[in-house]
Amino acid sequence: MKILTNFSLKKFNSFNINAIADNYVSVESLEDLTKALNLKEYKEKYILGGGSNLLITKDIKGLVIHININGIHQEVKSNNVTEVVAYAGENWHSLVLWCLKKGLGGIENLSLIPGSVGAAPIQNIGAYGVELKDVFISCDVINKETREIKTFDKKACEFGYRTSFFKKNNGYIIISIKLKLTHKEHNLNTSYKGIQEELSNLNIKQPTIYDISNAVINIRKEKLPDPKKIGNSGSFFKNPIVSKNKIEELKSNFKSIPFYTVDKNNYKIPAAWLIEKAGFKAKTYGDYGVHKDQALVLVNYKSARGSDILNLSISIQKAVKLIFNIDLEAEVNII
Ligand SMILES: Cc1cc2nc3c(=O)[nH]c(=O)nc-3n(C[C@H](O)[C@H](O)[C@H](O)COP(=O)(O)OP(=O)(O)OC[C@H]3O[C@@H](n4cnc5c(N)ncnc54)[C@H](O)[C@@H]3O)c2cc1C
């Protein structure tokens, strides 16, 4: 375990922001992680995974602990169910591919989501009709202060739309997660229109988990900018959820407003639509801006500072508030 000083995080965050960590350490075992947490000389300790849900707006004091604890194993429970344990440093998409290879279904809709396994519960990653919570059993965590290791079951994780107990309490580090996956194809989720269209383009009538994964990969590659080419963190904001009264008010003022029913009192509005209507889609300000096709994705074209992108996000929030009286909440973690 080697502590590096004045360490550039440019290659370790998908926005490609050139922030400097005073101190950086990569930990590859629980023992190393515990040692790093025990280093009293660093008051602040920041946990880094794949850096794909992060906007770094300043250089980081203290110690950045990069979680690189790897390993995946399975335990067959029945003819139909296998539990899979994956360690926090594994790449999420590699886990999806590992499961596909073993014929295990449940996370194929979450193909190609960037980042690490350890960060997946933080915002309960979700895409194309599936969320992590749908297959989640538990996770093992270490308390940053006491070093106590604990298991959190699904209930204790308090999963919600792009949120969890851990998003609100950063005192724990996720070491591993346990998922419940199935062998049979009958639980396939093809509810998302884009998946149905892609399967029909490929002339697939009885899809397998591989077909769903490929369909999702194709859609994502077409729709989302690749952070290796253009710095970004995926969706910058959450889609706001509003009450029945509010949606009625919005419908009368903005006839074409799109929305989805969450339950009988709550409605989700695509933040991308609000941002586009506020005039920000495709806006470029020197090195940064809003993506030309995806209004929800803020981008760093070259060498923007994190604070530039933060200020742009604040301008968007203010404009959306002014026009629609809706508060846009950042999905990305800002430091
Ligand atoms: C192009 C693109 C597309 C995306 N699409 C989606 C999508 O479809 N759905 C979706 O949900 N998300 C999406 N995201 C967001 C991102 O992929 C996920 O949030 C992912 O889980 C972040 O993982 P990470 O390892 O990169 O986390 P990081 O960015 O490294 O960290 C995110 C937060 O988690 C904390 N953290 C990291 N690891 C741990 C750990 N082991 N224990 C405790 N805390 C930890 C960090 O301190 C930070 O607060 C997308 C991002 C990009 C760039």
Word description of this protein:
- By secondary structure, the protein is α+β, with helices and mostly antiparallel strands.
- The protein has three domains: 4-67, Uridine Diphospho-n-acetylenolpyruvylglucosamine Reductase, domain 2, CATH 3.30.43; 72-223, Uridine Diphospho-n-acetylenolpyruvylglucosamine Reductase, domain 3, CATH 3.30.465.10; 231-334, Uridine Diphospho-n-acetylenolpyruvylglucosamine Reductase, domain 1 (Alpha-Beta Complex), CATH 3.90.78.10.
- 26% of the residues lie in helices and 27% in strands.
- It has nine helices and 20 strands.
- The protein has a five-stranded antiparallel sheet with strand order 6-7-12-10-11. Strands 1-2-5-3 form a four-stranded mixed sheet.
- α5 packs across α6 (209-223).
- The chain is globular and about 60 Å long.
- The chain starts with a strand and ends with a strand.
- It binds flavin-adenine dinucleotide.
- Flavin-adenine dinucleotide binds at residues 14, 47-54, 67, 88, 113-116, 118-120, 122-123, 125-127, 166, 173-174, 224, 227, 232-234, 333.
Low-confidence stretches: none
- Indicate the radius of gyration in whole angstroms: 21 Å
**What is the 3D shape?**
globular
CATH domain topology of the largest domain: Uridine Diphospho-n-acetylenolpyruvylglucosamine Reductase, domain 3
- Tell me which CATH architecture of the largest domain applies here: 2-Layer Sandwich
Q: Please, how many domains? A: 3
